[in-house]
Design brief:
mainly alpha; 5 helices
């Protein structure tokens, strides 16, 4: 396999991974951006207490599906508010 072909396949693979990721999102990437801003601000003030309480509050305030969203976050390695920023923010901003 030549180099260009390999690169092409890698790009295709990355693209598919991204599409799969996007397809699983429990709500829109725009809302995720709002969640990041919200958490940035509130965690800057109060810090993370190793729960998802601010994330849950955001979900409630925006009438988003809580169980589905929390399951999705756990599947993506998020178990507290600061991990939303640490583990998800980069992935979403890459979309
Ligand atoms: Zn935390």
């Amino acid at each position: 396999m030549d180099k260009n072909k390999k690169k092409e396949l890698k790009q295709k693979y990355d693209e598919e991974q991204k599409m799969t990721f996007v397809a699983t999102l429990p709500f829109s990437s725009m809302l995720f951006e709002s969640l990041f801003d919200y958490l940035d601000e509130i965690l800057g003030e109060h810090g993370c207490d190793d729960t998802l309480k601010y994330t849950i509050k955001f979900l409630e305030d925006n009438e988003l599906p809580i169980d589905e969203s929390l399951n999705w976050l756990r599947d993506n390695g998020v178990f507290c508010d600061c991990e939303v920023l640490a583990n998800i923010e980069d992935k979403i901003s890459e979309i």
